[in-house]
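User: Reviewer 2 asked us to show a designed sequence for the structure in our supplementary figure. I'm pasting the structure tokens here. Could you produce the per-position amino acids so we can include them in the response letter?
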């Protein structure tokens, strides 16, 4: 499960983008802290060093004033095809370089959504929970569908961002979530990507034995930032669970023969480079709000980079399709190769999920049908046969009249 909403830097990047990062990463950033870290599912994962974040955590910055950039004009809801503006060409197999100052500004300038006053969930006992790691363990079943797609990526959640972006060889990455804790966690990821030259070094930074030096690295990387305490606070809460997640994920990927950013140098180099040259933007964006996702669509369209993958996890299981959700999907700069990625929990049968891929323009067409009000109107679960069955469905059927 990965995070989303119910209804409701100065990172070591090129100098040209430091100001934009500082503005973007200090905006829409406040949320009442209840200390929740998903104890019901993570009790078996370790105690995260026995440290529960408290309001007295050293270095914790005071509340920051809102500094949300002006929103870009919303894309027309009827525009579900990519523009004719050419995608910038990269040499075959070459790592993408930094964007021009003008293009970097477009990438970073779109508005974020305001942080929610509370984190909602499908059950009362999950209210207020922060999803700091992904538990979709067999998503490798989507690897061949994402391999070398290129273009842009946008999606909720944490570590799965780097898995999918690496498989795609994405050019631009919008890391979207409505929980500001997830945005801060990606800041810690950025510090580690800057420091670690190999996947082995990167994974080691999450190990318990390295927790003190890793925290020092984060503090040094963000020295002078007023929110460094908040970034460290989130990292402390996530560290133990992410460590175990990486151990499990590496084992599953190795058994499946699928490369990923934590077990393959080429995948790691691609993802690390995207972060280091400023092509990854963590931001607060809510699938049910009206600025963050629309701004991503406008930026992708202006940059001429089609959004080739939109990852929703299992968000659609939590609510019916609202008008803002539909408008957010209509606003995206999809082309004929773009896909929507989903997961649906099936833990009683396989301890994991079943997975779903749909052509993104096809999904836009379904959303325009008046009878389509929820996920089940578009696609239905398949039967999970046994504990080793992790089905992946592909939906491209045209909507039908009712």
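Assistant: Here is a per-position design you can include in the supplement:
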């Amino acid at each position: 499960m990965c995070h989303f909403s119910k209804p409701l830097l100065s990172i070591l990047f090129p100098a040209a983008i430091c100001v934009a990062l500082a503005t973007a990463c200090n905006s829409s950033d406040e949320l009442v802290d209840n200390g929740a870290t998903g104890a019901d599912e993570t009790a078996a994962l370790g105690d995260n060093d026995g440290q529960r974040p408290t309001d007295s955590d050293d270095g914790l910055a005071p509340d920051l004033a809102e500094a949300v950039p002006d929103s870009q004009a919303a894309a027309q809801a009827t525009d579900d095809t990519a523009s004719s503006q050419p995608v910038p060409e990269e040499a075959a197999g070459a790592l993408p370089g930094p964007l021009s100052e003008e293009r970097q500004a477009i990438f970073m300038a779109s508005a974020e959504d305001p942080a929610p006053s509370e984190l909602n969930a499908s059950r009362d006992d999950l209210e207020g929970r922060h999803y700091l790691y992904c538990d979709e363990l067999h998503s490798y079943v989507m690897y061949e569908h994402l391999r070398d797609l290129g273009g842009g990526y946008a999606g909720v959640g944490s570590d799965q961002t780097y898995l999918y972006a690496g498989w795609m060889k994405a050019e631009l990455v919008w890391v979207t979530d409505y929980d500001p804790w997830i945005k801060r966690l990606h800041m810690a990821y950025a510090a580690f990507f800057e420091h670690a030259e190999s996947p082995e070094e990167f994974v080691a930074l999450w190990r318990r034995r390295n927790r003190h030096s890793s925290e020092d690295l984060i503090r040094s990387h963000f020295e002078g930032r007023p929110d460094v305490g908040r970034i460290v606070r989130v990292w402390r809460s996530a560290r133990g669970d992410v460590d175990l997640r990486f151990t499990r994920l590496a084992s599953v990927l190795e058994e499946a023969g699928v490369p990923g950013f934590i077990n393959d140098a080429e995948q790691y180099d691609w993802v690390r480079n995207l972060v280091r040259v400023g092509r990854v933007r963590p931001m607060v964006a809510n699938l049910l709000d009206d600025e963050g996702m629309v701004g991503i669509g406008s930026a992708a369209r202006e940059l001429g980079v089609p959004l080739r993958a939109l990852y929703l996890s299992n968000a659609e299981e939590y609510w019916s399709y609202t008008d803002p959700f539909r408008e957010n999907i209509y606003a995206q700069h999809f082309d004929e190769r773009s896909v929507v990625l989903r997961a649906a929990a099936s833990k009683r049968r396989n301890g994991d999920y079943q997975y779903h891929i749909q052509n993104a323009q096809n999904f836009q067409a379904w959303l325009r049908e008046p009878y389509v009000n929820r996920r089940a109107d578009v696609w239905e679960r398949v039967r999970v046969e046994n504990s080793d069955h992790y089905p992946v469905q592909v939906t491209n059927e045209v909507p039908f009249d009712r």
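For the response letter, you might also mention the following. Residues 2-87 have pLDDT under 50 and may be disordered. Residues 15-54+88-379+386-395 form one domain.
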